[in-house]
TrEMBL record:
This is Sec-independent protein translocase protein TatC. The chain crosses the membrane at residues 34-52, 104-125, 146-165, 195-220, 232-248, 254-274. GO terms for molecular function: proton motive force dependent protein transmembrane transporter activity. Forms a complex with TatA. It comes from Mucilaginibacter glaciei. PANTHER family: SEC-INDEPENDENT PROTEIN TRANSLOCASE PROTEIN TATC (PTHR30371), SEC-INDEPENDENT PROTEIN TRANSLOCASE PROTEIN TATC, CHLOROPLASTIC-RELATED (PTHR30371:SF0). It holds the Pfam family TatC. It is found in: Cell membrane; Membrane. The gene is tatC.
Length: 286
């Protein structure tokens, strides 16, 4: 009897050690995926340092100039609508540096932000490679376009944030004054933080359909629930648009909120597709 207990204990210990080794093997695999992603980000950051003059003068400082693409398009839109006030001829931005190492840290931070933004698609691909072996064949086929869709939505969000939200916000905030006795002098860190936050935050927000897909696959979110809460979603989207774009005019708020409404409706369609696939699998299993 004692021999059987001993053999059973040895087997249970062996199974426990095997599970622990499997867990640590997964951690080791994840570590290497993250290491490769970090290397990719470092490479893009180095490229950003190499082309820093173009990146800073053209990309980062672009929304602070009246010649920026968005401002020119607004001027043409105003001419097409025969309405004045669309053209922006001056943006009152005077950037200053108040720290001894301010401009040095500016170059490091902006280069790193460009590296993270450019390396984000590769990071998604490495995460997909880590998750893929744990999925069944049908799940792999269903999520085969994850990297492509997630990357496309992120890039679309970044472009929307950079060309629409950022210039509108910069134009409003740079000209907003509480009193004529207060002069607006912005630090370079504040300017970079505003551009990076508005751009990257919009890129993340545009991942909403991917989030809906994941939550629907887990059974947490349903198409019926999203339809029933549409009225509340409209209010939340308008609040987000008001926060992201501090401009007081309804036109800018509408321009920002429309893509969010579209993303929410796409999310409803995605949830419906996931539910139909689940139902089809359940019927096939019966």
């Amino acid at each position: 009897m004692s021999d059987n207990k001993l053999i059973k204990a040895i087997k249970e210990k062996g199974q426990t050690m095997e599970a622990e080794m499997s867990f640590f093997d997964h951690l080791e695999a994840l570590r290497w995926h993250l290491v490769r992603s970090a290397i990719a980000i470092v490479i893009f950051t180095c490229l950003a340092f190499y082309f820093y003059d173009f990146i800073f003068d053209t990309i980062i400082m672009g929304p602070s100039r009246p010649s920026f693409w968005t401002y020119r398009m607004l001027c043409e839109l105003g001419a097409w609508l025969h309405r004045d006030g669309f053209c922006i001829n001056k943006i009152n931005i005077d950037l200053i540096n108040t720290d001894m190492a301010g401009q040095f840290t500016l170059q490091i931070n902006s280069g790193l932000l460009i590296g993270i933004t450019a390396g984000f698609p590769y990071l998604l691909w490495e995460l997909w490679r880590f998750i893929k072996p744990a999925l069944h064949e049908k799940e792999r086929k269903a999520a085969s376009g994850f990297v492509l869709y997630a990357t496309g939505l992120f890039i679309l969000g970044v472009m929307f944030g950079y060309f629409i939200i950022t210039p509108e916000s910069i134009n409003f905030l740079s000209n907003f004054t509480v009193s004529s006795k207060i002069q607006n002098l912005f630090t370079v860190d504040s300017y970079l933080s505003s551009v990076a936050t508005l751009t990257l935050a919009t890129g993340v927000v545009f991942e909403l359909p991917i989030l809906v897909y994941v939550l629907s696959s887990l059974g947490i979110l349903t198409q019926k629930f999203m339809r029933e809460t549409r009225r509340y979603a409209v209010v939340v989207i308008l609040v987000i648009a008001a926060i992201v774009t501090p401009t007081p005019d309804m036109l800018t708020m509408t321009i920002v909120s429309i893509p969010l409404f579209i993303l929410y409706e796409i999310g409803i369609l995605v949830a419906g597709v996931v539910e139909r696939r689940k139902l089809a699998r359940e019927n096939a299993a019966v």
